[in-house]
Amino acid sequence: MKSITRPKLLEEIDRQLEGFDRVYIAGCGTCTTMTRTGGREEVLRMREHLQELGKLVTGWIVIPTACDEMTEVAIRENNGAIQNASCILIMSCALGVHKMSSYIEKPAFPALDTLFIGVEDGPGRYQEVCAQCGQCVLGDTAGICPVTACHKGLLNGPCGGTNDGMCEVDREKECAWTLIYQRLKAQGRLGYMRKLYGPRDYNVEPRPRMTRIV
């Protein structure tokens, strides 16, 4: 499982950093290194960009895993350079930004947009498989989540736009409900295709979500 991110436009990053002349850059050695959005090479390119803008980069680091306890350790070990900065630019997923912000009393800005949690289904190819909606229907849909696999998020499918097993929204993508049909047929459970779901209950997943393990 990886947090899938994409870089923000440099114009947006520059706007965020207006008025901040000393910047510390932090990347992540796990997810954003794998997706090439916040590893060592990307951090060094960002440093070069900020220096071209006339900003002082007080230091940089690629934290092994920016969303766990390693963050606090890394901050403690690099406290001097961090304190010398007027803000932190973080090249990790949103969870890493949240984690660093909880330890540093300085403005923290994300350099990336977090898209989804994905699994690798091919070399360098990641796919969202779960929206963590709190209303799992995988038992009825043969382990394929229609909320994430279907472009329209249909719980009752397929729609009228599927053609030869392909999605009308993205002709390069197989129709999720065709895949569900084929897997249910192979399992001898086609009767599940007739099950009708009512509107989703969004009260099941109020935000912000929280749980406590006892």
Provide a concise account of the structure shown.
The chain is an alpha/beta fold and 214 residues long.
| Residues in helix, % | 25-40%
Main sheet attributes: strand count, strand direction, barrel closure: 4 strands, parallel
Rg for CA atoms? 22 Å
Number of helices: 8
Write down the overall mean pLDDT.
90
Description:
This protein is of the alpha/beta class. It folds into two domains: 2-115, Response regulator (Rossmann fold), CATH 3.40.50; 129-195, no CATH class. It is 29% helix and 21% strand. The chain has helices at residues 10-16, 31-34, 40-52, 70-77, 79-83, 94-103, 146-149, 176-186; strands spanning 2-7, 22-28, 56-63, 87-91, 108-110, 112-122, 125-128. The strands form two sheets. Strands 3-2-4-5 form a four-stranded parallel beta sheet, with helices on both faces. Strands 1-6-7 form a three-stranded antiparallel beta sheet.
